[in-house]
# Entry
Amino acid sequence: MDRRRAVSMVRLAGAYARHVATHTAARRTSRPDGLAEFDRLYGRDRITPLSPQDRAELPSHGMCVACGLCTFAAGRAGYLRADRLPSQLTRTLPELWTSRDLPYDDVDWDSGAEVCPMGVPLGEMRRFVARRLEQDGVAPPPPQAPPAVLPLPGPYGSA
Amino acid sequence: MLQEKGAAGEFDVVVVGAGITGAGVARDAALRGLKVCLLDQHDLGAGTTWGSSGMIHGGLRYIEYDWETTRMSCLDGGYIKRIAPHLLFPVVFLLPVYPDDPFGIEKKETALEVYDRFQPYKAGRPHVRLTAEEALRLEPGLRPGLKGAVTMDEWGVDAARLVALNALGARESGAQVRTYTEVIGVVREGRAVRGVTVRSRLSGAVETIKAKVVCNAAGPWASQLCDMAGARLRLRPAKGVHLIYDRRITNCALGVEAIDGRDLLLVPHANQTILGTTDDDFYGDPGNLDVTDDEVEYILQAFERVFPSIRQYRIAHANAAVRPTLYQWRRYEDDLSREYEVFDHGARDGVPGLVSIAGGKMSMFRKMAEDTVDVLLRVLGRPFVPTSTHTAPLPGGESVVDVVEVAGNFSLPLPIAQRLVARHGARAEALLGDAEPDERRAVLCECEPVTRAELRHVVRTESVERLEDLYRRVRCTGGACLGMRCAWPAARVMGEEKGWNARRVAEEVHDFLDARWQQRPSVLRGATAAQEQLYRGAMYALGEVVDPASAASDVAAPAATAVTAGD
# Structure
């Protein structure tokens, strides 16, 4: 073991001792709400909990192979075409807010789902979107503050 | 255009290899006043960078080895966030702890408490400890039975776009950038290297490019270039495989342990999910990689243990790349250092005029480039000029842009504006302002979405030579259709821009779809495989993808069609 690693291990051992001494004692009296803290840190990025229902439905959302058949059956409303729901709009929950102004009720999702060869449940997906927009909100995430400019580091050590 | 072909005279530096390392070196060198030419045998970022996990991380694993390395990795992550704020996005890791975990939750939390000290350098946030119930409420797909979990965050990045922006930044500082340009020889004066002989992979033309120094940033091909020059560089190349899903399948990244104890990651990466990676010694051609069924199974098996429903999700494709790891004997692949080293072959092998950079990882690219250019300045006998790559913004990183405002100013649907700003940052509005009004909303790639205006812009300005390059620039062909719907109209736009005839357009589409298909057999399963074969067959039958042999060579390609948003 080289010297740097030895030093790191000693420092980690010290950190571990402090961790056990402070946290184990503190947790006997009170336990912070981890999910509330998680939401405080990442809620603005739309990185939020999934419900068991969301989790059960998600695999079928990804079965779309973008054949476009559903659009013939379901019709479209402006930018909102049936096939864009699985192939574009629901690919990422943190960006789902961008679909907030689309006229979801003007598309016949169930008819689209009936002709889908892969069994993508478009009606269910539309309800999924409504549920998630209600949970996560429709405002755009605020921009991340960049870190301050700090001095240039020297050469890296071994990694 | 990135290329400024025909520029006369000798360069100070020819950088061979336009991955993230080479592109970073080219930009740094150009910013410090050197006359630079950047070359790659393929597209920008098409080699090792293309197979990366797309993370700018602060080096949590180095806590065990050297805290100073973690501190400096975090500092560098902060610089990259500052110079390209539009390109980086948060990736939040959920690290579940099960009873058989070799470390246990207290030790894991201790490591993250230490890491919290360095997170502010990169605008990261502190860790959170979750109970088992809280972890399952956050991610109900986890296997029950866990003892708890901890969370932490890193930055995700579109790796190929990061390369393109570095190359574009280099070019804006005066560098030449040439893709599909293969080095076939080295120009010598005695033992000294004074340039390279190259052949265009597009036209077949051969030419000599003279330079005072050749910087070898060729990644897994670096040893071959050294061989040509009579120098020696020994690597221990390692193959890594990732599985790619066309959407996020979780909101949080997951860290799991593979059957051999290696750590694997599931990363929700913008609008995709990346699983990986394998890490195996590799002795073949880095340009000809297959993904085997065994490699796919190795990855899926590891995640199934923690995320049991993983096999229910449709894998879009897999990719493989080779890491140019520094040579070490008597170590398992996963224990190999990710350290990098700059080699001055004049001092080392008696071959002046050749400098190599090898090892390292994407998170360190800016620092690797800085150290390499420091050596180049010394070899060139130039006075030292400090780097500015930690403060000079990459193209598009000049300011933070309000997506809603961009959408309003150009009457764009928000989904189009969001992805445009994510790729082009502060330059999105200029791109839209230069475009024909009807092309701003004309969607060519449905899944991403990519408009005709954006496609024209990158073809004109970002060194796009082949259809496949569009995936690396703007993710066109990267969604659920895997190119079956958008490859053809995208090739037509390229044809319009480049003056291709119908035969050339057909060849591009044909080559692209064949290559894409060959990457997929190991990940196609069940009904999805049958459906996609049927779809592919139907597309051929309908003439959407014509056989290039039947396409007339003297007929101009038909105009591209696109659906206009709101039509």
Summary: The mean pLDDT of chain B is 91. The CA atoms of residues 12 and 35 of chain B lie 5 Å apart.
